[in-house]
Write a structure and sequence with these properties.
By secondary structure, the chain is of the alpha+beta class. The chain is about 30% helix and about 20% strand. It has 2 domains: about 10-120, no CATH class; about 130-225, Arc Repressor Mutant, subunit A. It has helices at about 10-15, 30-40, 110-120, 150-160, 165-170, 175-190, 215-225; strands at about 15-20, 25, 30, 50-55, 60-65, 70-75, 85-90, 105, 130-135, 190-195.
């Protein structure tokens, strides 16, 4: 029997490799959005490639690194806060194509904003170093992202100061969990410059309006269908 040549779709599928879950503290694996965040952070320096995130009972997320876009097939009506990840696959390089024909992709920064907030609840992302401080190198487009007034306060502080999460919380008056979640998110989005060992400067806390609606209620409304 003569073997048939693979179709372009078959060839593209063969380029994808499974990315195992990152582990920590004696082999404890990253789960849910933490697992996804670890994968995306590890490929942050790549300029092209496709990442496929297969969720249990919540569809598949297709991320085009070059276009900074994503598609979510089978997306549930509400954004899952603690999804189960079945498998993550990746194919890097200029010749890799999105394996499905999709229209109207979402912007990757929007997805990263929410993944970063939900991954590593109450702790720093696993790739962060304990003594590092962070300065904002690029403002996120807040017109497209659900955010709180305290986020604006912290972003303003990070624009002019290199701060650790604990210093950011103290200077802004935010809870430590909020400060570390914002640092996790901005670093995942590639919007921070890391500064090691720089002394904390005097900071001025800007006056901003009090929060009205909860962040995560707007988060679920924004990315839910």
């Amino acid at each position: 029997m003569v073997a048939l040549a693979p179709t372009p779709r078959d060839s593209a599928a063969e380029q994808f490799v499974v990315v195992p879950a990152a582990t920590r503290n004696g082999g404890v694996p990253a789960l849910g959005w933490s697992r996804v965040a670890m994968v995306l952070r590890s490929f942050q320096a790549e300029t092209s490639g496709i990442v496929l995130v297969e969720l249990v009972a919540a569809g598949q997320i297709i991320i085009d690194i070059a276009r900074r876009s994503y598609w979510w097939t089978g997306q549930p009506s509400e954004f899952p806060l603690r999804p189960r990840v079945a498998r993550v696959r990746v194919a890097l390089g200029d010749g890799v194509e999105v394996p499905y024909v999709q229209e109207q992709p979402g912007k990757l920064d929007e997805l990263l904003w929410y993944i970063g907030r939900l991954a590593f609840p109450g702790e720093g992302a696993w790739w962060l170093m304990e003594n590092d401080r962070y300065r904002l190198s690029q403002w996120p487009n807040l017109t497209e992202l659900a955010h709180e007034p305290e986020d604006l306060r912290m972003l303003a502080l990070l624009t002019n100061n290199a701060l650790s999460p604990r210093q950011l919380a103290a200077a802004s008056g935010a809870q430590h969990d909020s400060a570390i979640a914002l640092i996790n998110t901005l670093d995942l989005m590639g919007m921070l410059t890391v500064v090691a060992g720089e002394p904390m400067p005097d900071v001025v806390v800007p006056e901003l309006p009090a929060p009205r609606e909860g962040l995560f209620s707007r988060l679920r409304a924004r990315l839910g269908r």
